[in-house]
């Protein structure tokens, strides 16, 4: 059984909602990324979305764009991001890892080599936001053969595509709460509740919601309808605010503690 399935089974038994943080690997450096992942696990995270920094993050708002820029200063590759899963596991992290990457960096690595790496390093899931279902046949077959869950995104505008996307989904279905790019929001798409109901009826798989979530109240609201809540920009912003501490060896633990405190209050 895939680690993501195991995590959702445990959470269902415990009546809990999964908290899935997203962070950009290599922001500010790979060693600190692993320290942050350990803190996220301590704070109650149930899975981690490892973001591959990319030069043209078209679906990302300014916070994640800045994080990608900082990480790309060290020329972090897809292979480096995948390696973080193994290194974090070696450091004692038990959480499932979902690799989040735009399609281009994966193509540059080559699908064969990419899938060998993700299997070897213990990645459990894959999110490729710019690979639509109409073009994902080859990747989906390779992912299924490797027992890696290719997790699709559905948006409030997906309408009749929701059923088709959900029918091919593995792991869980990622419901995007709003149109536009990632980034903290105070309100969501007007039809969000009906949209989440539509997705719930279209799949037996767990459903997750992401985009714009930053407060415990928002997590509690979505926990009523979803099995998982994904938080990216708000956590990446907390990392950004803690950078002066994280990059000073004598104050690194203080910076990590700031991230821990913010994330812990999100776990419901
Ligand atoms: O950052 P937010 O608003 O909390 O949304 C999650 C998001 O960061 C993460 O899942 C993600 C990062 N980049 C993306 C691009 C498309 C879809 C999703 C994403």
Automatic annotation (TrEMBL):
GO terms for molecular function: tryptophan synthase activity. CDD domains: Tryptophan_synthase_alpha. It comes from the Bacteria. Its EC number is 4.2.1.20. It catalyses: (1S,2R)-1-C-(indol-3-yl)glycerol 3-phosphate + L-serine = D-glyceraldehyde 3-phosphate + L-tryptophan + H2O. The active site is at 49 (proton acceptor), 60 (proton acceptor). Pfam families: Trp_syntA. Keywords: Amino-acid biosynthesis, Aromatic amino acid biosynthesis, Lyase, Tryptophan biosynthesis. Pathway: Amino-acid biosynthesis; L-tryptophan biosynthesis; L-tryptophan from chorismate: step 5/5. One of its GO terms (cellular component) is cytosol. Tetramer of two alpha and two beta chains. The alpha subunit is responsible for the aldol cleavage of indoleglycerol phosphate to indole and glyceraldehyde 3-phosphate. NCBIfam families: trpA. Belongs to the TrpA family. This is Tryptophan synthase alpha chain. It comes from Paenibacillus abyssi.
